[in-house]
Fold this sequence. Notes:
heterodimer, A: about 100 residues, mainly alpha, B: about 180 residues, Four Helix Bundle (Hemerythrin (Met), subunit A), 2 domains
Amino acid sequence: MPESAALLGPSLALSAVLFTLGVAGVVLRRNAIILFVCIELMLNAVNLTFVALAQLHGASGQIMVFFVMTVAAAEAAVGLAIILAIFRHKQTVDLQNINLLQG
Amino acid sequence: MTEAVFYFLGACAIVTAALCVLSRSPMAAVLWLVGTMLSLAGIYVLLNAEFVAAIQVLVYAGAVMVLFLFVIMLLNLGSAKSDLRGPSSVAAAVVIAGLLLVELAALWNYSPERLAAEVAQSPAMSDPASIFTAGELARQETAARGVIGGVAAPLFQTYLVPFEITSILLLAAIVGAVVLAKRRI
């Protein structure tokens, strides 16, 4: 497995770039749906790290990816339901207009 | 050859992720994210995780993204105006992302040898070979049992309890989503 082990460093760097893009998107955008998309992007970056390190540590890393995917699917379902409920209440998904918790 | 394909797919992933973050409409953002996920699935194949790649395409790029598209279509957002935040937030985003990237860029230098050396220095791990033999064993297991068998054996033996707890999480998510999205229960 020498050639794929050589991809460890570049894989970790790629996941760093993707995670950073996700963080930048969360800070930059105001649309709640795009916020969720950026969170999915960050989860994917972490998954890439798990898979890259699974080459060295065995299949445990790949199993963590399954758990991350499950949590991501659950999070997307509940989060999008919350967005739907908020949209029904406020007629917008712009986070600047959603300030229920500001009192 | 493998490296060339890796760098091509990596460039695709970065470009589509950037377009996803910057695209104006949520629909376009989700479709660009599907591109990122497909590129990552290709990279998983290069990293010897074929089953994870298949699940990535089926579950992530297929099911989860379709859920996003459904919600976007349900909401019927017509506005085309940009929802980027003001200049102060742009500056904050650049600073935060830049710091994070500088911090994470150190990962570029990681190689199996360096990882082994760092593990050897940490007090808890006395013998780095004790870790890396596990990877070797898993590799032999993959050779013996095939791609799916190599993943299934630890999933249903070592990680059986977390796997079962996952079903409780999914049940809670289903109930929560129904309760939240339904107008009247």
